[in-house]
Amino acid sequence: MNQNEIIQRSKSKNSKVLLFGVPKLGTSILIGLVDFALLALYTIGYQLTPLLAGIALGIGKLTIAASQFFFGWISDAKYTRWGRRKPYLVVLSLFLSSSFLLLLLPSLFIDINDASSVFIWFLVWNIMFNISYGVTTPYNAWMAEQFSIDERPKVSQFQNLFGFIGTAIMAVFAMVVLTDFNDDIQTNPDIIPPDFLYSIVIFAIIPLILFCLIVIFMPKEPHFKIDSNMIDNLKTILKNKNFLLVTVMQGIASIAWIMTTSLILVFISTVLQFDSTSNLIASIVFMLGILIFLVLWRKLIEKLGRKRSLLYIFLTAIIFLPFTLLGLLPMGSTFIFGIIFILGITGCMGGWFLFPSIIYADIATDDEKSTGELKAGIYTGFPSIILNLFQALGLFIMGMILELPSLGTLSYSIGYVLWGPICSLILICAYFFARKFIKLDFEQ
């Protein structure tokens, strides 16, 4: 294939689409547990100070941004006998599973009564886990090489479907197993409860098996030649004005989305005063709502196009988010309102989760038309650097909002009701930015 030819991708069978999406189940379980359990495990269970735990977690966030960019960049560089992405999927998934085990089961290897050893262990293996999580970039970059433009919404839908199944498994594990785990650890710090131990081992094995399955059964991507070196590729994407504008748009929106995903269940517990049963129902509604709206938004994207659908997603969120202000008013029963609010939020989040992998695969394909080179890895990996900075800003803003004092008879910070309209204002900025500056619909 010469440099000016564009790769022709044949129509994929449903089995291929399904197979490609499956690894998202494993990575969602692992990243969900790492985000959910690490702080509590090391501060409550292993008595590490919050400051040291925060340092280890913060360095991990910086590491994941760098690793996702690096492995996207370098996996573009060489086409091997196994293809461009497969070697990275095998090696990095092995390291991902191993580092997850070591990170979650420190008492098997070190003296957890030694604070210095616990901190160093946490820091080292959190860094290794986040480096290994860079496997998701070659994996996501593979979409542009394996599937045609019109298939990508469906592929993204299945990825997110498996992702939320993984998140649901993690949530059930958290409710059933983690509830008393930290108390058990404090009582017997050298003994790991068997249900926790076996669960962690199984969770670690799942992504390794799933990535190996797609390596074995997915075909190699077409052998297209990239004559430019990695530095030239970086210069190319930095000259792609639309790509940079799309990344900025996604970054602006991610400030609101990271706050929303972090606070929605806290909102219904703290403000709407849901009990444990109502919380469980709300969590189920949240998961099912996301899954249903993934399907609906995928159909709308196919019918209306990328950009128009994205703008509708923003408008949906802009309308629903300010309803958190109703928490300032006395309500007899909050359950119905809470369920309706959750459905409204999942309506827009289900659509938003479809977009990142579609957008960057499309932009890489569009760039291929002008350069003759499909640089899907670097187009998928580079935005992680920018997005992690915006998400860190979102978490910082969230922290400041929740530090606001209570108002009147409220028993909680007024920030627990103000976050909705603040997120809505942020998404208004993203809406007008997207409407004016970015292009998402390309001629095939």
Short description:
The protein is mainly alpha-helical.
How would you characterize this protein structure?
- This protein has 444 residues and is mainly alpha-helical.
- It has 2 domains: 11-221, MFS general substrate transporter like domains (Growth Hormone, Chain: A, Up-down Bundle), CATH 1.20.1250; 236-444, MFS general substrate transporter like domains (Growth Hormone, Chain: A).
- The protein is built from 18 helices and no strands.
- It has helices spanning 14-21, 23-45, 50-75, 86-104, 115-132, 136-146, 152-176, 181-187, 194-217, 230-238, 241-270, 276-304, 306-320, 335-352, 355-371, 376-381, 383-402, 415-437.
- The longest helix has 30 residues, at 241-270.
- Mean pLDDT is 82; it is low at 1-6.
List keywords for this structure.
444 residues, mainly alpha, Growth Hormone, Chain: A, 2 domains, 18 helices, 74% helix, 0% strand, disordered N terminus
The outline comes out as globular
Q: Average pLDDT, to the nearest integer?
A: 82
Query: CATH topology of the largest domain, anyone?
Result: Growth Hormone, Chain: A
Identify the CATH homologous superfamily of the largest domain.
MFS general substrate transporter like domains
Quote the beta fraction: under 5%
Write down the oligomeric state.
single chain
Instruction: Provide the gyration radius in Å.
Output: 22 Å
Query: How many separate domains?
Result: 2
Low-confidence stretches: 1-6
Structural class: mainly alpha
The CATH architecture name of the largest domain reads Up-down Bundle
**How many distinct helices?**
18
Question: What percent of residues adopt helix (DSSP H or I)?
Answer: over 70%
Order of helices and strands: HHHHHHHHHHHHHHHHHH
Can you summarize the main beta sheet? none
- Number of strand elements: 0
Name of the CATH class of the largest domain = Mainly Alpha
- The separation of the N and C termini measures 19 Å
